[in-house]
Amino acid sequence: MSRTFYVTTPIYYVNDVPHIGHAYTTLAADVLARYKRIRGYEVFFLTGTDEHGQKVEKAANAAGETPLELADRVVKRFQALWEKLDISYSDFIRTTQERHKKGVAHLFADVLAKGDIYLGEYEDWYCTPCETFWPETQLIDGNCPDCNRPTEKLKEESFFFRMSKYQDKLLAHIEANPEFIQPKSRRNEIISFVKEGLRDLSVSRTTFQWGIPVPENGAHIIYVWFDALANYITALGYPEEGENFGKFWPADVHLIGKDILRFHTVYWPTFLLSAGLPLPRKVFAHGWWTVEGQKMSKSLQNVVEPNMLIDRYGVDAVRYFLLREVPFGLDGDFSHSALIQRINSDLANDLGNLLNRSTAMVHKYFAGQVHEPGDLQEIDRTYRSRTEAMVAQVETNMEELAFSKALQNIWEVVSAGNKYIDETAPWALAKDSGQRERLATVMYCLLESQRIVYFLLSAFMPITAARALNYLGWEGAPTETGFAWGALKAGTVVIKAEALFPRIEGEKS
Ligand code: MSP
Fold it and tell me: 127: which of 50, 174, 254, 420 is 20 to 30 A away, CA to CA?
């Protein structure tokens, strides 16, 4: 039986165009998906767009478009960026698709039939210009926190979900499954929130039109988060137990930003509990990016546009930087100088140079051919065992979604490779014809260690890794068995590598 792995990103609102915050989650999911595929899993990697709700309706009105026109236009921006960022998703779901609408209506009807949705009245402070209800605690001197205009107390008929009923079950689940909410600090935050008590949740609106109607009650539109969260199962064909739903649900991990944790670890699991469906195995919330020390915002005009970054620095440099710079789960700051520093030091100097030096030497000393290694000496054995240890460390860190640590593990071996050259001094061995076998052994170790390095890097930097593996004479894609030392065969012809990452000189930093 094949092992399966299901990873998701949030579905992005189409009222905004993609920025590095969106690119970050999607990239992390891609690296994980690629890694699991290399490790032999059958992977389903889902992303998509969240196209309903008042926000999108308003943005469309402002742009003089219908919501669907707006969505059709913006969805292309997301899809084009994912292509440029080399994102290997399996499916892209749009909440305006029939398959999704059908699934959401089914889920709503199912929860209703279970007696967990009831019709009630929603009473809160309403800001008419913003068409938004606010709880009293969020008002600022009685005024709307968004536009600062007066609010009035209004009642609206609404369907409610009996979230309160699932409080104990949810808490028990969170406590029995330490892996369910990650990182740990986030888990504690949710535990306290649930312990404070869950209120029933309003899951329909009557103040706007753009959404999925409540089955058999068209005056109500299903709450946008009920609609959006269901994407994780509707994309698999829910409610049909057929191939994908039966095969991939529950998800192995929902990757999200910290701002939408409560929706994913309180709302979503309680909907699933009510519907009698299994809960996702893990929800991992990453931190937020600021830009040169400031919050990213349209009004500050400091939104980092991923297309621009890729054009300027190259896709793999951007992919590397985003996952290396900040431990996944913590907040981080984006700056051009930090990115340039990483490119020059980690990518050009450490990684690129090692490949250049090694392949150039194989050309100089062995006309580009890999030779059978002789017996390994202490220094070779240490280098080999560090390489082997790296594979295991990366596996552990990838399990924990510690991308930055996994990259550190890889870079330790890259640095060890550069040091290995300095210490074995192949140029000195080359001067002594009695040392041919020793020289061949040193070359073998260098190439073999790097082959394994690029196997791992193919999850993070697919284009660079493919280029490097091609220089190293490896044919085809990385395979699970190829992670073992010794897969590189004598007789392989190595190509003299060109610079993988040119240094960036004198740019704004
Ligand atoms: N549509 C909802 C998600 C529904 S999932 C069932 C949504 N969309 S969003 O487009 O506003 O945000 C999507 C993701 O982008 C969130 O995970 C959010 O954390 C992330 N980011 C938005 N700005 C960000 C940063 N500045 N930094 C990192 N991630 C950020 O929420």
Answer: 50
Residue ID of nearest Cα to ligand 1 atom 7? 12
Q: Is the CB of 228 under 6 A from ligand 1?
A: yes
Distance CA(219)–CA(88), nearest Å, equals 40
Distance of CA 414 from the midpoint of ligand 1 (Å): 34
Rounded to whole angstroms, the Cα distance separating 416 from 274 reads 54
**Cβ 51 under 6 angstroms from ligand 1:** no
Where do we find the tokens 């389903």? 44
If we measure between CA atoms, which residue out of 306, 313, 228 comes closest to residue 271? 228
DSSP reduced 3-state for 347: helix
Count Cβ atoms below 10 Å from residue 197 Cβ, excluding itself: 8
Please tell me the distance from the alpha carbon of residue 30 to that of residue 7, in angstroms, as a whole number: 9
Q: CA distances (Å), 52 to each of 236, 398, 442, in order?
A: 20, 34, 60
pLDDT digits (tens, 9 = 90+) for 364-388: 999 999 999 999 999 999 999 999 9
Record the pTM.
0.95
- Map residue 457 onto helix, strand or coil: helix
Among protein residues, the one whose CA lies closest to atom 19 of ligand 1:
257
162-200 per-position pLDDT tens digit: 999 999 999 999 999 999 999 999 999 999 999 999 999
232 lines ligand 1 (CB under 6 A): no
- Separation of alpha carbons 171 and 195, rounded Å: 8
Query: CA–CA separation, 331 vs 295, rounded Å?
Result: 11
